[in-house]
Amino acid sequence: MERLQKVIAQAGVASRRKAEELITNGHVSVNGKVMKELGTKVSTNDKIEVNGVPIEREQPVYYMLYKPTGVISSVSDDKGRKVVTDFFPHVDKRIFPVGRLDYDTSGLLLLTNDGEFANLLMHPKYEVDKVYIAKLKGIPTREQLKSLDKGIKLEDGMTAPAKTKFISSDRKKNTAIVQILIHEGRNRQVRRMFEAIGCPVMKLKRERYGFLTLIGLNPGEKRELTPHEVKQLRTMASQPRK
Prior knowledge:
The protein has 242 residues and is α+β, with helices and mostly antiparallel strands.
């Protein structure tokens, strides 16, 4: 038996908080009866409807993909381009990416059918650390990198403090390799941060998500997360940042 709002969230209908609002506002029924009590528990045999539409209850699954460049972080694309779910032809569940990586960015991406889990990981109050390796046009100074570490102003506001690490540079080609750790999830954030200091990104890869790394995977390869890894991510994402 599980709480009604959790089941709704896991089905990807809404976040748990939104599911609670749907319940208290009388939009949810169980076996034909409207339920407004948040403590209501349901079994796998109960028929749950939201606004008269039955929810599809699936066993939750959790995957990690090494997304190649040239792939859309979506379940479909109206231009016929390759999407991340194309790498999971054997999965019969309605999985979707947790957040996104740009078309021209590679690296670690999570996919699941657990809406509550996805919302928890993406919530701005809890977002987990993400580590990227960027190849830059131009060689940033120590002061420029420090400005990213302190937080830099973008068109949508100040970024949270980052952690940068200078890896290497090529003076002849005027390029550099820099590692950056952020926990926010704004659109094209890493690229915009480096553009703001005058060193545009030429190539970008997400190497780490929380404690998960790409070790053992090649571009286009994936694996299922272990129950322990899922539990660790839930714990990590549930701890508000100070």
